[in-house]
Structure formats: C-alpha cells, structure tokens
Structure of Chaperone SurA:
Amino acid sequence: MKKWKSSLLGLTLLSLTASSFAAPQELDKVVTIVNDSVILQSDVDAMLKTVQMNAASQNQPLPSNDILTEQVMEKLIIETLQLQQAEQFGIRIDDTRLDQAISQLAKERQMTVPQLQQMLADNGLSYAMFREQMRRDMTASEARTIQVRRRINILPQEVETLAEQLNKQTQQGVKYSVSHIQLRIGEDATAVQRDEVLNQAQELVKELRGGADFANLAYSYSKGPKALQGGEWGWMREEEMPTIFADQIKSNGKGAIIGPFRSGVGYHILKINDVQGLETISVTEVKARHILLKTSVILSDEGAQRQLEQTRQAILKGDQNFADAAQALSADPGSAANGGELGWQTPDIYVPEFKDKVETLPVGTISEPFKTVHGWHIVEVLKRRDVDRTDAAVKNRAYRILFSRKFNEEAQAWLQELRAGAYIEQPEDDNDQG
C-alpha cells in the first residue's frame, strides 16, 4: 500500500519536531503518556507552528487554538500507537527505501531533491528532521497496512459482481470481429460419442493456440452457420451477438481463443480477431520459487541470513537442489510442498522487497538473502512472459475498489480499537492554567 504518498509531504511537515524551529526555552515536559512512550510539549508546539505556517501560506482559516491543539494531540497519539505496533513487528524503513521515497515525492511535486531541501530551508524546516519524520510516517503506514490487511475478507462473488458491472460500463460502443467453430452433437448421441466430440474440440483449441489457421479448421470441421465463411461473423457489438457468444466474450482482447464451451447443440470455439473501442492490457508475469525462513527465539536474523546464504552457495555449487532445499527448509507450506514454486504471478501481489527482487533478478539467478515482513528469503526467477490480462485487469480493478473501500473502513476501526486499548495519560501540571 502506498496510501501515504499523496499527502506525505503535508503530513510530514505537520509532524516535524520542535528542534526544526528554534530557540530553546523552558525545559521540555511530557504532556501525554502513550503506553510506554511519551509525547513532549516540543512535539505539540512544532506541529502547531507548522499547521499555522501552512495555513497562512494557503490563506486557509484554522479553528480555535483549543480545537487545533486537540486535533494535533490526537494525531500524535495515533502516530505513536502505530509506531509501537511497527516496533512489535520489527518494521524498519532503511535509508535506501527512504531515499527512494523522497526522490519519488520530489518528482511528483515536479522538483529535484535539492529543490525540495531548499523549499524546506526557506520555511525554516530541517531536512534531517524531515527525513526522520518521513521515515516515521512510512513506518506507521506499513504497520497499519499489515494489521488492516488481516481484517479484510473479500469474497470471490463480490469481485465477480463488481467486475461484471465494470465490464458493462466499458463494453458500451465496443465492437468485436469474431470467428466461430461449432462441433455438433446429435440428439441421440451416446456418451462415448459426446466425449469424442469434446476431445475433438479440445484438440482443435490446442492446434489454434499452437498457431493453426482458424479459417482452415472452420472450413474442415465447423457445422455452424458461418462455416463456409471460414467461421467469420464479422464486426458485432456484444448486444448483437448470439447470447452464447456474449456470455463468453467478457473483456477478452484481440487474439483470444475461447472454449470449448457447451450449448444445446454441441461445443463451440471462438476467436476474437480484432477489437475496436476496448483497451487491451498486457502484463508481465513471473514464475519464481523461494525459500522462506522465519525468525524465532531459536533462530535470529543473523542465523536465518547465514543459513540461507549457506543453502544458496550449496545450490550454486550443485551440492544441493533448490526444490529439495525448499521442501526441507522453507517455512512457506504452500510453496514448500511444490519445491518452493509460487506459480505464474504478477509481481504486484508481493510485498515491496519481494516484488523488487522478482522484477529485477535475471532469469536463472538466485538472490542473496533478503528480509521482508514475512521473514528471510532467497528467490529465483524461473521464467517471465507477457500475457493478455484484460479480463484479469478488470477483476483486479474490482478487487482494488473493494479493497480500498474495506481498507478505509477497517483502518478506522483498527485505529479506534488500538486507541481504546491503550494506556493514555495526561500528567497534571500545577503551572497550567494561569
């Protein structure tokens, strides 16, 4: 998740500590205790000053000081609670990830990093403090994402229903050039004869996907109404097609071979020769395998890293087989039973560190050990391929919409629960209230 990105600069500016502003005054004091952490008066003062500075630069009115102070305190409490969660998970944003995020942030604001530094300096803000607060924001965001993901359950039928709605919106005005092969089954056909027709249909699909000419096969085998035209139906909108065609087309792109599928008269095979008005989507899928070790009271970070490096060296020398090592060592039961293989996947499904590895590793290369929120890994990219994922992209879009809706709802609920279960105290100060 990168939900922090769009407003990160503003949030970071709002969260800079008091050392960004000057003048040491009276001794700093604790204004709020949050479990085993504290919020200092300097934290509150710094954020108040930054809010006021930003509001003045944008001619934006602010609420009364009492309300503004309350809002600032609430933000600091919530941030502190999330950072405590991050510490429990062992989440740490290293300098490389931080520098990449700052570079991306500057780019989105059409600045260079030096220009961003100058902008901060012009507003009296320390770049070093900005970096560390940005690290805090990213750390809190990652902790929130990990926890909230566990609370989200999206049913397949929810995705299918929304995907169908999205498809109907995108299908308006789309035209398809379609070819068709029909293999007929007689009304009195035996079970053996029906199976023979199905086997023939499956063999034709195999030939078509191997590059066979559709028209030639339609002339030779089709019993459909367009057999003498090589199976070509010409250009049609979805609503102009036979229902059995429209039910199968969905959002498949140019060149798709669909079928065989059954109707009352037999089996059908479709080919989408061309599409007008529909954006097709091609994505790169990666087939990879990995070995995962999880740390525990018995296995430290250093021990897991060392064990994986030893395994990696043994595989590279030919003393050990990757699949055997995965079955013996990997703490990912789903892939370990399959020799560590994760199947064909788009890299976006993986956590950031794993995604980066499978996107950048040359095929056949085994990575050095690296850490994610799941543990320590080594990974090997076996193959890459470009595939038409137009239909999958619509489902992915539907999933992202549903996830975003539920994430926002569950994130708010989680934060409320986190706050309700926390020990929060504001120490009395005899000098307050004159």
Summary: Residues 282-388 form a domain with the Chitinase A; domain 3 fold (CATH 3.10.50.40).
